[in-house]
């Protein structure tokens, strides 16, 4: 499984690391997009990559980044995971051992716990995969104004999933603090992770 993603690493991770020095600007004192008071707190009940139930209570005590994606995603998802991993390392201050990243699959039909475990392990031990029946996932995405939809399967039964590409950042208390978009630099993300961790 890891070999399958190694080619993606060569094409995605290196350019991201080279771009760490680039900056970005956001509102509310954030270098990305501040969303304090704009979105509800972190609440969910999912099945984790270990097959056990995971809830927001399990994430309390440290900042959490939530991303909605799927393991068959060819570019957006691996890029997002590589970017948040790079930003966490760039942030320093022990965030590489404290920050939690929740990869919520919007493709539960294909993303089994084992597949999620193999996928997230490729990026970082701080990333945890989780999913739930489609309707529960849809309720969760609506809570945070995210979307997803399934394309028509091809003759082999394969299909793509369109989905939101932003990452949602919550503080240690589960309050929504920032939104990381694909246009935000790793440096800006790292700066805001430090800010949120200190608050």
UniProtKB/TrEMBL annotation:
Where does the Thioredoxin domain lie? Answer: 33-199
Residue ranges spanning the membrane: these are: 12-30
Q: Among its keywords, does the record have Membrane? A: yes
What Pfam families would the database entry show? SCO1-SenC (PF02630)
What PROSITE patterns does this protein map onto? Answer: PROKAR_LIPOPROTEIN, THIOREDOXIN_2
Which of this chain's residues are annotated to bind Cu cation?
A: 73, 77, 163
- Spell out the disulfide connections: 73-77
Q: From the Swiss-Prot or TrEMBL record, give the protein name.
A: Protein SCO1/2
State the UniProt keywords alphabetically: Copper, Disulfide bond, Membrane, Metal-binding, Transmembrane, Transmembrane helix
Q: Which family does it belong to?
A: Belongs to the SCO1/2 family.
Give any GO molecular function from the UniProt entry: metal ion binding
Q: Which Gene3D superfamilies does its entry note? A: Glutaredoxin (3.40.30.10)
Any keyword Hydrolase? no
């Amino acid at each position: 499984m890891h070999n399958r993603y190694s080619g993606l690493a060569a094409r995605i991770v290196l350019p991201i690391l080279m771009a760490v020095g680039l900056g970005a600007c956001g509102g509310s004192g954030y270098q990305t997009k501040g969303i304090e008071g704009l979105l509800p707190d972190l609440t969910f009940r999912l099945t984790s990559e270990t097959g056990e139930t995971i809830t927001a209570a399990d994430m309390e005590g440290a900042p959490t980044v939530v991303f909605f994606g799927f393991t068959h995603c060819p570019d957006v998802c691996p890029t997002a995971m590589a970017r948040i991993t790079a930003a966490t390392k760039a942030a320093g201050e022990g965030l590489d051992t404290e920050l939690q990243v929740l990869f919520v699959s919007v493709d539960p039909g294909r993303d089994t716990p084992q597949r999620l475990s193999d996928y997230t392990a490729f990026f970082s031990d701080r990333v945890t995969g989780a999913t739930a029946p489609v309707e529960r996932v849809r309720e969760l995405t609506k809570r945070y104004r995210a979307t997803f939809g399934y394309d028509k399967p091809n003759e082999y039964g394969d299909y793509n999933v369109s989905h939101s590409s932003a990452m949602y950042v919550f503080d240690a208390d589960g309050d929504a603090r920032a939104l990381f978009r694909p246009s935000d630099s790793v440096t800006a993300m790292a700066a805001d992770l430090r800010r949120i961790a200190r608050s």
